[in-house]
Specification:
It is a single chain. The protein has helices spanning about 10-20, 25-50, 50-55, 60-70, 70-85, 225-230, 245-255, 275-290, 320-330, and strands at about 90-95, 100, 110-120, 130-140, 160-170, 170-180, 180-190, 195-200, 210, 240, 260-265, 295, 315-320. The protein has about 325 residues and is of the alpha+beta class. The protein has 2 domains: about 5-200, Fructose-1,6-Bisphosphatase, subunit A, domain 1 (Fructose-1,6-Bisphosphatase, Chain A, domain 1), CATH 3.30.540; about 210-330, D-Maltodextrin-Binding Protein, domain 2 (3-Layer(aba) Sandwich), CATH 3.40.190. A hairpin with a 4-residue loop joins strand 7 and strand 8. Helix 2 runs antiparallel to helix 5. It is globular and about 60 Å long. The structure holds 2,5-anhydro-1,6-di-O-phosphono-D-mannitol (AHM) and magnesium ion (MG). Magnesium ion (MG) binds near residues 95, 117, 120, 247 and 279. 2,5-anhydro-1,6-di-O-phosphono-D-mannitol binds near residues 121, 123, 245, 263 and 273.
Amino acid sequence: MQSFDEGITLDQFLMESGRAHSERTGQFVTLLKQVTLAAKMVSARVNRAGLAGMIGATGDTNIQGEFVMKLDVYANETIKKALEHAGVCCLVVSEEEEELIHVPERFPRGSYVFCMDPLDGSSNIDVNATIGTIFGVFRRKSPEGGRGDLGDVLRAGHELIAAGYVVYGSGTLLVLASKATGVNGFTLDPGIGEFFLSHPDIKLEPSARMYSLNEAYKAQWDDRLVDYVESLKAPGKGFSQRYIGSLVADFHRNLLKGGLFIYPATAKAPNGKLRVLYEAFPLAYIAELAGGAATDGRDRILDLEPTELHQRTPLVIGNSELVREATEALSG
Ligand code: AHM
Ligand code: MG
């Protein structure tokens, strides 16, 4: 795996890693650059979101119109446009859109399939809590130049060639993972509009003492989960709990500080809430490359083969020993 020094720009990193990566077409690097560009645009809009009400009060409808476009819609359109114009994708899957998105006829069709949750945690926008973009990249299976089809998308997670997320929080940080480069984090310097490598080669320790899940649903849990979570609270175990309710933010904290995240099956949501293609797969790919693990409470997430675009899955993800213990407890 190639290693990099802190402080280089994301562009420099992409150019160097492009040389190391097995995807040598240049198209792959262009794809990641376009995602970066879109991330900067979304970040700028997220930072201004709170101004919408103030500007509305001035009665300037044009400016207000621009501001009040829902942020998740804006993120979806911005990322899609960045990818379509660059001719790097044949297909996009988005949480915001029911159907598979084909790149319009007027653009060249590229080799990649992009699966995204354009703005995860969007129920947190109103309270200025951290939100983010999650994405995974497959190389197409269908013939080059064609429109692409469902077979390019409905496939096992271990076929991903890259994944990442952007968190729009107190700062904007982009985490990028691929087998050639491992997991690296880049912080946006808003003054000059560049991402700099700030978290090189992120690794998860085998264990940690933090768990994240929504305990308000306890009455709907399987008894095995109730017992497992109770066991974490035993005196002397030293666990603490954090739950933001924004997957990307909870995952990011756990990736940097260690922790176990669970969004289980519940009586009301027997398949859990989170989506396979653009939430569970990318984060599982990142977790594994960082030395962690992810299961659905029984099987490895990256071995799932979804049969529907917006399929859901329970998710147990984080430090490898914690995921193993939780999975044993849940499937025992
Ligand atoms: P959404 O698709 O409605 O945005 O829901 C996804 C979010 C995740 O970011 C988060 O982990 C989860 O919903 C929180 O759900 P809950 O409020 O049920 O704990
Ligand atoms: Mg989401």
